[in-house]
Amino acid sequence: MLLFFLGGLSNGLPGVLTWQTLSIWMRQLGYSNSIITLMFLTGLPYTFKFLLSPIVDHYHPPFLKRYFGKRCGWAIAMQVMMLLSLIGLGTVGAQKSLLWTGFFCFITSLCASINQTATVAHRIEILNDDETPQAVAIGIMGYRIGKLIGHAGALYLMSYLPWHIIYYSLSFVLVLSIALYTTTPEQSFGETKSVYEPKVLAVIQKKHPFVFKQPILVHLYCTIAIPFLYFRKNNTEWKKILGLLLLINIGDDLILGITDLFFLDLGFSPIQIANIAKVFGLFCSISGGLLAAALARHYHLIRTLGIAAIARALSHLLLILLSLKGADPNLLILTVTAEYFTSGMKAALIATLISNLCSRLHHTGSQYAFFSSIKAIPLIITSSLSGLLIDRSSWPIFFIVSFFLSLPGIMIVFSIPNNSIKKSSYNDFNMLRLTQFEKSLENA
């Protein structure tokens, strides 16, 4: 569980340093909201994570697999790369170089997306479905604390240290995760059947000869198409599930990364934001995640997610009220409580849903990255355009738009039957026969 916690921390810290914390730094340097949010486009690797996931599933990290295992080896390599990239970001940010700032943000996002695939795939593969909710809650707790360190920590330190020193200091928190991954043996349930199994290749050659003529197409088909086909085969409501992942967070994605600028515009000080919106908000998020983990064990996951989504959408109304009333600390506390508690619940339930959808097979990382990428598509689009919307309207209108964007996802949640999510087992893939694969490929 400590490994899952620090794995989550290694996923949360780099993202916030290239997103919310960077936006505050850029605001102090005098950049407009539009320029600040356009920098969020450097997070594109999160959206196209499924293209990177085959690296984690089908290739071994150079020199590391022998000593640490495949999943842990990739996690160690990427965390070291993130450490170096964040140091570079602090250096070029202090020189006010937008081009190099964007470059190091992109490299950090690239390594972070591979690290997230490796750490989550490792967690999924060594746990059963009953253990998953608690492990997800622990991982999200680490993720939230990583964001707290990178965000509230920076807000506390900005009055005493220059920004590049803050980035140097906070990036070294990753050393804790690197150290634990290097000293913890990777657990495994043994070798699973490869997606390059001869019978599968024979089916591809027979049904899709044009694919088989190009090695790169065979690779993409085996590492991306087959995991998707397996998911589609085992979930009759697969279209609604994909729609759910695509739309469930779109209202939250619009305001992600820019609420701190909203609090600053209202007149709250950085210390108030750190104490109320970050430290207190962290405990609200963790409480919501732990409650969601408990509910997921005893109630239907889909219905629980629907209730959490409704509560999260209603919390946007408090942001509208706060934007109209101004810098009221009591209202800020109420808003943060509702926002972060419901956000923690929803995040834990979505992570549990994705874990249950993954097959725990040779392509676990590919399936996780596919679902995660679907969920991230609206994030990169809406967040990068949010600054333009604010500059051309007002904060109340901005939050009204975010509220209405939350409604389509809620409607999809309640249209999915409770028993439509089929829990997977470790041997499902090995039990498939050639005729079943032929049917899947013919229907593709």
Written overview of the protein:
It is a single chain. By secondary structure, the chain is mostly helical. It has one domain: Growth Hormone, Chain: A, CATH 1.20.1250. The protein contains 25 helices and no strands. It has helices spanning 2-17, 20-28, 33-38, 44-47, 49-58, 65-68, 70-94, 98-125, 132-157, 163-171, 174-183, 198-207, 209-212, 215-233, 238-247, 250-255, 259-266, 270-298, 301-325, 329-357, 364-392, 395-405, 407-413, 428-431, 434-442. It starts with a helix and ends with a helix. Residues 189-195 and 423-438 have low confidence and may be disordered.
Chain-wise SSE layout:
Elements: H1 2-17, H2 20-28, H3 33-38, H4 44-47, H5 49-58, H6 65-68, H7 70-94, H8 98-125, H9 132-157, H10 163-171, H11 174-183, H12 198-207, H13 209-212, H14 215-233, H15 238-247, H16 250-255, H17 259-266, H18 270-298, H19 301-325, H20 329-357, H21 364-392, H22 395-405, H23 407-413, H24 428-431, H25 434-442
